[in-house]
Known about the structure:
Elements: H1 26-53, E1 57-59, H2 67-104, E2 110-111, H3 123-133, H4 136-157, E3 160-175, H5 182-193, H6 202-208, E4 231-251, E5 256-257, H7 261-264, E6 272-283, E7 295-305, E8 311-319, E9 332-335, E10 342-352, E11 355-379, E12 385-390, E13 396-397, H8 405-417, E14 441-444, H9 452-473, E15 482-497, H10 499-523, H11 537-547, H12 550-558, H13 566-573, E16 576-583, E17 586-593, H14 618-642, H15 647-650, H16 653-695, H17 715-718, H18 727-746, E18 749-760, E19 763-765, E20 767-772, H19 778-792, E21 807-809, E22 812-814, E23 830-847, E24 855-864, E25 867-876, E26 887-892, H20 900-904, E27 906-912, E28 924-944, E29 949-954, H21 964-981, H22 1007-1020, H23 1029-1050, H24 1052-1055, E30 1056-1058, E31 1069-1080, H25 1082-1106, H26 1119-1126, H27 1130-1136, H28 1143-1153, E32 1157-1160, E33 1171-1174
Parallel strand pairs: 7-14
Antiparallel strand pairs: 1-15, 2-16, 3-15, 4-11, 4-15, 5-6, 6-7, 7-9, 8-10, 10-11, 11-12, 11-13, 16-17, 18-31, 19-22, 20-30, 21-23, 23-28, 23-31, 24-25, 26-27, 27-28, 28-29, 32-33
Helix pairs in contact: 1-2, 1-10, 2-4, 2-18, 3-4, 4-10, 5-8, 8-9, 11-26, 11-27, 14-16, 14-25, 16-18, 18-25, 19-22, 19-23, 22-23
Amino acid sequence: MPATDGQNSVQKWRASRGWLPWTLHKVYLLPLAGLFLFMLGVIELLREYSKRMGGIVHWAYEEDLPTATWGAYTYLPLIFALLAINLLDVCAQDVLRLEPYFQLAKPGGAPATVLFNNYCCNAFTASIIAFRNRHWVVLCVAPVSLIFRMFLPSLLAGLVILDDGSWVERKIVNTWPTIIDLEIQQLWLAAGSSGEGPMGSPELNSFFMPDPADYATPPTSLPDDQNESSLLTLNQTIYWSNMTCVSNTRRGLSPQTETNLTLTSQLPHGQQIWSWNVGNMSMGNLPGGNSSSRCQISTALDTVIGSDQQTLQAKFWEPMGYDGKLLAPSAFTYEDCSAFKVFGVIVDMQLAAGNVSDSNVTVLACSPTYQQAWASVTLNPNASIADVDMTPSTVKSLDTADFYVDGIHDLIASRYLTSESDVRFGNTTQLNVSASSGDPVIVATDSTILNYEEYVQEIRQYWNSDFIVTIDRFFSPGGFPTPVEASQQSFVIILTVASKAATLAEAILALGLCMIATLIYMYRRRSNFLQWDPGSIAAQCTIVAQLFKPSTKVMFSEAKLDMATTRQLRQWANGKWCEWVDEDGEEKLQVVDRSEASLAPPHPPPRRRDPMPHFLRPIWFLLECLLFAAILALFGVSLSYIRLKNINSLFSTGATVAMIFLNFGPTAIASIIGSFLVSIYRNLSSMEPWIRLQDGMASARQSVVENYGIQTPFIPLFIRRHRRSGILLTLSIVCLGDLVLRILSGGLFTPQLKNYLSPSSDLISMYNSSAMVNNVNQSDIQMTLVATGRLLNNVSFLQWASTDGKFFMVPFSIHNTSEDDQDEDDDYTVYSATTRGFGADLDCKVLPAASSDTSLAWNYKIAQAGVTKTCTVDIPLTEDLASRSGKSIHYYAPNGTDNSCQESSIFVLAFWDLRNITDINEAGTTALHCEPKIHIQDFHVEVDSSGMVQDQRPISGSSISSGSLFHNASAILADFNQVLAGQPRNFSSHHFNFSRPHGHRRHHQHDWPGRLTANAYDMTFPDDFMLKSEHLMLSVQTVYQTVFSTHLALWKDKFLERLPTHSAQTAHGNLLDSLWGFIPSTSLVVIIICLLAIDAVALMAVFAFRFNRYRGPRVPRSIGSLIPWVVQSRMLADLGDTWEMSEREREGYLLEKDCKYKVGDFSAVGGPRWALDYDYDDQRSDPGIELQDRGPVE
């Protein structure tokens, strides 16, 4: 029953809130709730951002994923999880250890078994015991703490995952829709019909259109962050040709057998020539054409017939010129057919016994049309067209103001006559039959049968493909670009939030918030008699001395419970009740018996005692040591497997098992070992003061004063007042190392790119890299500049050029045997080999400004073969120097006493903000003179099967700076330099015999290199508001080096000597297998092994120092376990006087008293067999009263 109000301090405790540890105050709980809210908010923010943006961050290539970034997204959530767990654990441990005291403080009392409750012993059973005892606060805290510890680290470690997904970005890309003028088109088309110039170069065909599509589009610069899956969509004008055809068919015709021995004598045995003559085939009108137009076509065609075929077909078509004239000896004659530009014939025949049993002849007439339209164009990563969404209302015929349509048609027609598509004899090597211009057209037959629509489609595709290649040359990517908006869609590597993990983590954090709210609410209202922390033995003895009624102490004394085990104590307490009674105006605790249970001590033999903790029992200790040894062995074997250099070994059974173990094992092991070490620490914390007391003569500091109730291993490391010495401090440090183990195990797998080399015989040497010949051609330079404009603007790609475009690598012939049985898209092979690279270095210097009213002039000196020569540049002030954009860069060839200046130097003049020549004095002007030098060096290159260089590394000490190769290459560079700077502008008629008015100038101005340099400057340094000489130098060097390496790459057969095919040599190369994935980090595995070894050593050290050190019947982990040992103790009365003292005051009092304490057998002096008291060997304790002379404290 409650006591009446009084002045005694014991009476006042119900009116006060009592003592609470700081971990149960708002000052701790509210920041902890803030941490949980912060984590919950960040998780939700990341999830919503990831959902909205398609990921948190992304990379175009897997190998671009930085290990540090992945580690940050893995380790930071895990660190926060462990921080939250340990901060919550400090609070939870205080709740669990103090719960018995709050149960005793209830006004109605509590069962006596509460005296022996210890919820800190086992986290898994605490919830079950609390539910059985109906201790709801423990039931609220223990499961939540367990859930945090078991699930939160793994959930947050896997919160951010790696995935692939579609990433869409808005881009601003450069296009070059400007078409070269009609005059240049006429020159190029005329030269192309003769197989010369940019239109007649087979070397450029593969460069410009490696993957012909159905449409031609302006060149577009591709973003630098593209990968192999990127699709770039933008609006452009598209160009294409169409073919509209009509036909007429005659059936049942019989051919004539050719008897001309000149034609038949060279036929293989059993073959013959049949002549088909069909006259006056009327062609219908084209759709939308003139209805009065009539076209009649006759054809005479000879076909070669084999001896064993049954069903044959002969096919032939030929174009006319745009003027309506046939361009070669023809199989057709016609009347009134001006609407048609292409004629064709299909002869189908069935043979029986060597004769025609059935036949039909189809004659077709077609008219090509050239069209353009506005469309949404989607480009592949190699700049080829993936998709076109045309706007129908914008379709129109090709604009003749922009395109020389007649010349385009004639060029396509002339190309056909020299292509393999022209199947007439005399243009093919199918048979050894020669034909003269007066002979009829002879074609072969084959068993591949095409119907009319299929054959027309074949003609249409050929014509359109050649049209696209032609139109593509007319775009000028060397000039200033036109920026347009584009959309880039890529399948990229993204870091995204795992939605389920985020939901579960948020639920756990919300559960933690509910728990904190419950604690704040509950502990403000709970009865609490505590005045200080009851964690020390002295504090517990003070509670026993002041709050327990003397009759209760007598009950404990008479029960002879000093040698009872913990289980026997609980059995004794069953049926008893702790209640509050009023004794002389004070509230006291009294244990009363509410059952018929005997007050006699338990019957089990007194020699029995509580079992020692698992780590101090030999059998369990040996098993734990074996487990540590097995774990270390598994990590060691796994480490040996993941360090293998052979990719095949990486997929062996042993390596697979090692990967599985390293994937799932470390996290589980770290969690288990963490719980194991905390268990050791908590058990030792409970045992340590009793081990010291058992030895006797223990000081207060070593035993009764120290608060061993705080069983969180990290508090002694950071709070000096609770710092402990010896083995417990060491264990605290080991537990801290276990936190590192848990962190590392969560991020053991890191994104890595592993390269494995295996010898390969797929590389065949094609060229002699030790010899060069000089075949620089002026027209070749022109086409090189066209190609360079595309390379510099990231429009096209060049094989066997270095990734930075500065070197040409001597190529190999690649025969990938691994692709023979695979689809082309299913295999991407990269080779590693050593080859020679040729490039140019350019040393540039700034010249001082110079000007006059009529010209600009400079003089500078160069060193040539040890002789200093003076070079001059004199540039008239003309409007050609200005530019509409205000930025103009010009290349000039200097003058000198001989060709040395033109061969060994180049002059560059740049203007900034010069739109009118009259403003030249106000414009920013920079002049450079540059001296090129050949650079020959060997490289380790990585190249794919198509010849695209993926990476190159120069070989130290392999540069060549003397000898015949260096001399010949230097001569090539000198001629190249002279031709480059001396080119008349705009690809003039120097090669095509077309005079231009400025061809007489001493200085040879050339637009293309300057325009390329200006464009390169703008793209590289877009933020420059004034011309910077160092940036200009870099742009000039980049353009010059790229032009030279591109020139060597495009015309390699003119500079390098091909090796004979009969003596081809296999190059020394390797097949490069690259494996990207989440691979265990070797360094982390080594660190984990070291930490596990430290844990194993700590376990053995604990066993060595604490095995059989404690011999008591039990280790008191509750106040009830302590009472039987102190009810007859002399120290109890002394400690009862300290009730009104604070914890610090009691500690100072006991330390000042400097008594020694002991726990053990006091039966020799008439006391209990096991008790806690002053050590009777201590002369400073009360000598007049022995323990055996004292009864229970009244």
